């Protein structure tokens, strides 16, 4: 990159870090097209209502890829607090991306059945993984069909029932929008998006097979009982979203994609996407105000691919 030629090494590193962060945060990665059949959570295309919410300095400069910028392990701004990993989720120790400037190296989770398994754009589930203890949580959903979308793993389902009960007791009844998604479903949906829009475009709103948290059976999108603003940006302004933000950790859930952490999680703010991790981790994550990546010491910027 020519820009760096006249800069001192320290400045290059600093600038490279900023570039990585800004480049990583600019994708509308989890968003599904308006069809609502998507692998992402949103029913509507993302509106850039709050351009300032991406963490780090807003830099107009674009890089081709974080790997090219030369400092793939640059810590993100939120990573100052050293994480205390309580588990070892990764097969091999993470190493700097070495993919010739084309995206990040992908690691396969060694503990796919662990409730603390990390799944994001850099870490995927094994292709053959199927959760063995999926059940139907006894909570209302915004649809009537008996499909896999209702399912969660047993422990997460029990915790969800308690969470829904507590929300109802606080006069804010909730409904499920979408929970489990099989690897096969994700493969089909992703392939259809690639066919329709091309791979590059599809990657902006759909998770690749193996990379969706919904495949763990530990994630669920929720809405208020009316289903209004289900998996849409307007949910953020609801009382239910506020309640979830304040209370989910009590039941072992985290708001997996918090506001302002897009450069770390790889996803924009999704106040409706709950991930079950168990109360030990959820309470600590809520207390520290960190992401799951930061908590596990995996807070390298996530490539938008
Ligand atoms: Zn979701």
UniProtKB/TrEMBL annotation:
PROSITE patterns: PROKAR_LIPOPROTEIN (PS51257). The keyword Cytoplasm does not apply. Keywords: Carboxypeptidase, Hydrolase, Protease, Signal. Residues 150-278 form the D-alanyl-D-alanine carboxypeptidase-like core domain. SUPFAM superfamilies: Hedgehog/DD-peptidase. Residues 1-23 form the signal peptide. Residues 30-107 are annotated as: Disordered. It comes from the Bacteria. One of its GO terms (molecular function) is carboxypeptidase activity. Residues 64-86 have a biased composition (Low complexity). This is D-alanyl-D-alanine carboxypeptidase family protein. It comes from Paenibacillus radicis (ex Xue et al. 2023). The lineage of its organism: Bacteria, Bacillati, Bacillota, Bacilli, Bacillales.
């Amino acid at each position: 990159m020519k820009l760096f030629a006249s800069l001192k090494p320290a400045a290059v590193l600093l600038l490279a870090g900023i570039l990585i962060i800004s480049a990583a945060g600019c994708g509308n990665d989890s968003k599904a097209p308006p069809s609502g059949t998507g692998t992402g959570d949103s029913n509507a295309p993302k509106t850039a209502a709050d351009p300032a919410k991406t963490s780090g300095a807003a830099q107009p400069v674009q890089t081709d890829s974080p790997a090219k910028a030369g400092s793939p392990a640059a810590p993100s701004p939120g990573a100052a607090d050293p994480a205390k990993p309580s588990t070892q989720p990764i097969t091999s120790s993470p190493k700097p991306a070495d993919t010739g400037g084309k995206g990040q190296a992908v690691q396969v989770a060694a503990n796919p059945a662990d409730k603390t398994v990390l799944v994001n754009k850099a870490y995927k589930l094994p292709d053959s993984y199927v959760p063995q203890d999926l059940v139907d949580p006894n909570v209302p959903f915004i649809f009537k069909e008996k499909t896999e979308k209702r399912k969660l793993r047993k422990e997460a389902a029990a915790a969800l029932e308690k969470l829904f009960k507590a929300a109802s007791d606080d006069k804010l009844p909730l409904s499920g929008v979408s929970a489990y998604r099989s690897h096969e479903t994700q493969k089909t949906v992703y392939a259809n998006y690639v066919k329709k829009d091309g791979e590059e475009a599809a990657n902006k709103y759909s998770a690749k097979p193996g990379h969706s948290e919904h495949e763990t059976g530990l994630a669920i999108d929720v809405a208020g009982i009316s289903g209004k603003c289900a998996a849409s940006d307007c949910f953020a302004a609801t009382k239910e979203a506020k309640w979830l933000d304040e209370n989910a950790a009590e039941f072992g859930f985290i708001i997996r994609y918090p506001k302002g952490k897009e450069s770390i999680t790889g996803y924009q703010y999704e106040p409706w996407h709950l991930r079950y991790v168990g109360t030990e981790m959820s309470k600590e994550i809520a207390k520290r105000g960190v992401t799951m990546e930061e908590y596990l010491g995996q807070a390298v910027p996530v490539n938008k691919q």
